[in-house]
Amino acid sequence: MANIKSAKKQARQNVKRTSINLARKSSLKTAAKKLLIALEQSQNIEQVQILLKDAESKFARAKGKGTVHANTASRKISRLAKQVTAYAKASPK
Predict the structure, then answer these.
(1) What is the pTM of this model?
(2) Using 50, 70 and 90 to split pLDDT, how confident is the model at 93?
């Protein structure tokens, strides 16, 4: 347990930041999973693109806040976008 006042404050901030980052990471996983489920269920391309845009924005925000590394966020967005593009090409119009 911290004894110095600044160390106590830092400990409180760490608890707060940890819970925020945990919620944000969970949100990222949920957004990506929703998109993958939509692709598996062969939903129409407009819905899939809306889910992709949502996932991209969540990853970009997490990247900006430092919750995930910039390269990790870019890689995951890129892979999701690649799957959506392949789905769009394969789906009948």
Answers:
(1) 0.85
(2) low
Residue with tokens 């430092």: 66
Domains present along the chain, CATH in parentheses: 5-90 (1.20.58.110)
- Give buried/exposed letters for 1-17 (b at 16+ CB in 10 A, else e): eeeeeeeeeeeeeeeee
Q: Which of 53, 62, 52 is nearest to 28 (CA)?
A: 62
What pLDDT, in 10s, does the model give residues 24-39?
Answer: 999 999 999 999 999 9
> In terms of C-beta density within 10 A (0-12 exposed, 13-18 middle, 19 or more buried), how is residue 49 classed?
middle
Give the dihedral sign, CA 64/70/74/76: negative
